[in-house]
Description:
elongated
Amino acid sequence: xxxxxxxxxxxxxxxxxxxxxxxxxxxxxxxxxxxxxxxxxxxxxxxxxxxxxxxxxxxxxxxxxxxxxxxxxxxxxxxxxxxxxxxxxxxxxxxxxxxxxxxxxxxxxxxxxxxxxxxxxxxxxxxxxxxxxxxxxxxxxxxxxxxxxxxxxxxxxxxxxxxxxxxxxxxxxxxxxxxxxxxxxxxxxxxxxxxxxxxxxxxxxxxxxxxxxxxxxxxxxxxxxxxxxxxxxxxxxxxxxxxxxxxxxxxxxxxxxxxxxxxxxxxxxxxxxxxxxxxxxxxxxxxxxxxxxxxxxxxxxxxxxxxxxxxxxxxxxxxxxxxxxxxxxxxxxxxxxxxxxxxxxxxxxxxxxxxxxxxxx
Length: 361
């Protein structure tokens, strides 16, 4: 085996130019694979965090008067994630007080809030720590709030609104602002549910359960959510295409390398066969040479791909996400597939006539 490795190195470094094109192909393929995976994953995360922040599988209902009893009814529906009153917000000076029901706080990954507790945006209150107390004037009185949690607002619509966001429980909101009834109600449906099918069922059940003389009506359907889901699918499909192209490019590079070796080394093969080196050993020489080039191409492709991804991510404002396990797995698959496919050209060795080769050379 040592002899075969030595022979492979001698053949490879004896003609570097011949191996340059396959090496470049593998390097480009691996680099493109890393860029596609990291930037694609980063873009997908941006869509999930940003676009999904401004759109959800939500509907807006309008009616004569909604209150917390309606929230409790909806909490019992299995297809409803949470519900809240969009008008449960009051501006006081530079602050916006927002009321959320218990279920909504839970689904938004906020802690359960008691009276006198609040959640604030860390970017608006950078010096505040959890557990500290904030005091605000509400009307003619001072109200104290213990900071239960700091969060980072990601909804672009909320970020465009002026005022410091102070999230409190719906019960406490109603108590301090004396607001118990609302004309609109937002319902967030399970993301796996088809809103077109579910809306008529929801309306019928909700109207029956409310026992109200005036029926509620749909004010807004989740059209934006559907568009965001389509965008997600487009991004995923584009990512898959880029991965496949990178996969093929690298695999073809390895196959071309081995095939080119056999064509360029016809005389060497003839000599090897003439001095009695077995065909299997000759095949191993070419495979070892292919593995060496592939390994070097993968290292350089990994370094170049990582640098391009980091710099490119900064230029297009998409923070890359490196999923190391997935990247390593696909790179290994490229190597294995390329070598398996590269074995096919080695069958030509059997067809080489040793006598004819030696006469010509």
